[in-house]
Write the structure tokens for this entry.
Amino acid sequence: MEKLAINIAGIDLKNPVMTASGTFGAGREYSEFVDLSQLGAVVTKGVSLEAWEGNPTPRIAETYGGMLNAIGLQNPGVDVFIERDLPYLQKYDTRVIVNVCGKTVEEYLGVVERLADTTVDMLEINVSCPNVKEGALAFGQNAESLFYVTSQIAAVARQPVIIKLSPNVTDITEMAKAAEAGGASAISLINTLIGMKIDIHRRTFALANRTGGLSGPAIRPVAVRMVYQAAQAVRIPIIGMGGIICADDAIEFIFAGATAIAVGTMNFTNPAITTEIITGISDYLDKHDIADITALRLALNH
């Protein structure tokens, strides 16, 4: 459907719907529910230079309107991804975006360099990782740090670089501008909000890590606001996410200024949600006699 086609940093996508990192693995678990070839892109779970074990359990807690997670970016490392997961994804007619994580700039660069000669289409950099050289403050919570890591990655990356912004900041536009100035081809937002849940019956924290990332419908108004603000601040494309559970939610993000959207937590509830959203967006365009999805993004006079 050409009316749904978009372009991000020179990469053509058949539609604007993709998966949010950490909720879809590398697609293998969902392939019996979803035809991956229908998706605009599959965004993988975070990939690090070496294997990460993640945080101790319990690592998931349900909350009203969402969930908390403190998985800790558990993954087997970039070499296993290249050998095992990437060949599987190559079987499908969809774009592949690899989420890259690291605890130092050198670790990010190591993953980016390993992926340089692969068929990966784009890289999404998770700057919510703790910077171990700066007292564990996330790379994405300081504009100077964000500019530095972005510029270092953009200098060596063979694929377009998407910076995934953390919402746990005072001014999201400052971070968006830092990513753009550092050479990012696009930004994605929002990542999870920091939250906590206490089990009053067991008299302890619901998560072993005490705090975790809040996702799900409860965060959507915050995400829409931040996407809108970022769209006013930068010229590069934006991938919007945060609490999308239906086509109407996805369309709201596009009105706010997003070129594409990513679906995360709802995959756990309804594994086929991404394809349902693709159909829903198409139906919306037909209903309102809109020939091109980009018209929605321009509707609020950005």
The first strand starts at residue 6 and ends at 8. The chain has nine helices and 16 strands. The chain has one domain: 2-297. Residues 100 and 235 are 23 Å apart (CA to CA).
